[in-house]
Amino acid sequence: MEALLSQFSFLSDQALQDKNFDPATMEDLMKFFELEAYNSWAAMELEHENEVKEAEIAMREAEDYLNLVMDSAMEDFLLFEEELNNTSKTEYESLVKAAEAAKKMGNLVEKAATMASKKYMEAALNAATASMKSAWKGISCNPRKVHPS
User: Which PANTHER family match (predicted)?
Assistant: First the structure.
């Protein structure tokens, strides 16, 4: 571009000084300016397209990395969730077993208490019956005995 400007300056000076100057020379130089501008624009367009392609590649790489990290995080989460579910299930089963054992123990204690209560009532009833029989024997053997009070 500088060479064209230098040539333009030279031809401008020549046109001012030479009366036989051919204007077609200036037109040829202007075509070179136009060609240079077009080439510059094409180079900038190509550079822009290359930068866009590089940016798209960088975006794809970033998306791939993000997907990789997200997949890894999801795998970790699913493993943690599975481990937590297994731990919860084990703890739940342990609590259910403990509850069932406590229920069985309660039923056994209830049965033992019921049996003890029945035995106590039978013993009390037998003792009362024996006392009543003894009292009846005492009355039937000595009907005339009166209590001194």
Answer: MATERNAL EFFECT EMBRYO ARREST 9 (PTHR37707:SF1)
